[in-house]
Structure prediction request, 386 residues.
Amino acid sequence: MSDALDLHLTDAQRALYADTLRLATSGLAPVAASGEPGRVNRPLVRALAEHGLLTRLFTSATAIELCLIREALARGCTEAETAFALQGLGAHPILQSGSEALRSRWIPRVADGSVIAAFALSEPEAGSDPAALTLSAQPTGDGDGWLLSGEKLWISNAPDADLYTVFARTDPGAAGARGLTAFAVPGDSPGLGGEPRRMLAPHAIGSLTFDRVRVGRDQVLGEPGAGFRVAMRTLDLFRPSVGAFAIGMARRALELATGHALRRRTFGRPLRDHQAVAHRLAQLRAETEAARLMVHRAAIAHDAGAGDPSVAAMSKLLATEVAQAAVDAAVQFHGAIALERGHPLEHLYREVRAPRIYEGASEIQREIVARAMFRAAEDDLSEVTS
Ligand SMILES: Cc1cc2nc3c(=O)[nH]c(=O)nc-3n(C[C@H](O)[C@H](O)[C@H](O)COP(=O)(O)OP(=O)(O)OC[C@H]3O[C@@H](n4cnc5c(N)ncnc54)[C@H](O)[C@@H]3O)c2cc1C
Prediction:
């Protein structure tokens, strides 16, 4: 890729990207390949730890560094990318809002790969609208904690994880986002069960059932009733890097497609000489790089304390949508071979779909952008008329 597209990055950030990409393709991909589809690959998480990536996640990682690491991992090994992101998503609420005791109990073990973390927000009736969640937290008689009852669904790393950040309703009287509390819940808590679900995306994902799972005050992240804010702070940090994950896949797909278009001949000439192929790939290259720059701007703004939800929304929207288009075109220009089980594009085709749904579906991102756009237009109008 052209250096011109990386001029906004420091030398250290460029080196981080290049080193992570090398590690993903040479060191991590073989470990990923030996995992069982749909279940947590513990050796892969330990390998991420041994190479220092997980420690970085919990010590110094800024949103832009998260983007560079996630893009490079995705380009070289999507399973490693997902394992990395989930350790962060699952344990960041503890780092950010947990007590000193919780942080020292969990963070070193998540960072050394001995504990697998998960972020449990979604429920059967609360996905895009997490404020509608109903997992109930009933105060215990002794006033020292709560009993969690209900279900979580589509939780990555469930049911294999050792630690769940769980969002529950401690105040049934408070509507919507108010009345939610975040808890750190060990995976072996009595009453906590779960089942794996088989999904198009190859990583571990499942349901969780809570049958009067006891949690103490010392397991609360932040304040009781402030759980929604804990969830949003974590998602705000990670949102641009979901886009980066998608961009890594888009770049990989375009590399595969351009390589194939050089080699494959039809009608007596290489595919690259068919303008329909070359121009489609050129268009997708341009859109991928534009989306990547938008992702980086969103991350840099977040790191500067100037994060703007509508910029983050635009970046996730554009990156995940262009990645879908790039992978689809790469499949198209490969023909049948790309659909064979085990082909890298068959794998990317399954991986690329979910990010348009999770952490805010594309329609939700458009809604955030539209609201900000019309709010600004109304403000402009009222300035003109006042
Ligand atoms: C691979 C994968 C991994 C996941 N991992 C996790 C995890 O680790 N932890 C976790 O908590 N959750 C996780 N999820 C769940 C994910 O966050 C939800 O799937 C997502 O929030 C959407 O919720 P839903 O599936 O219930 O769809 P719904 O909320 O039912 O929405 C369905 C569709 O309706 C449309 N829609 C909804 N609301 C609106 C609106 N206001 N305006 C316009 N259109 C709308 C969108 O097209 C949306 O895709 C994961 C999901 C997937 C697919």
User: Anything to note?
Assistant: The CA atoms of residues 113 and 247 lie 26 Å apart. DSSP finds eleven helices and ten strands in the chain. The domain at 117-225 is CATH 2.40.110.10 (Butyryl-CoA Dehydrogenase, subunit A; domain 2). The pocket of flavin-adenine dinucleotide is lined by residues 119-122, 127-128, 154-156, 199, 201, 205, 354, 357-358, 361, 363-364, 367 (CB under 6 Å).
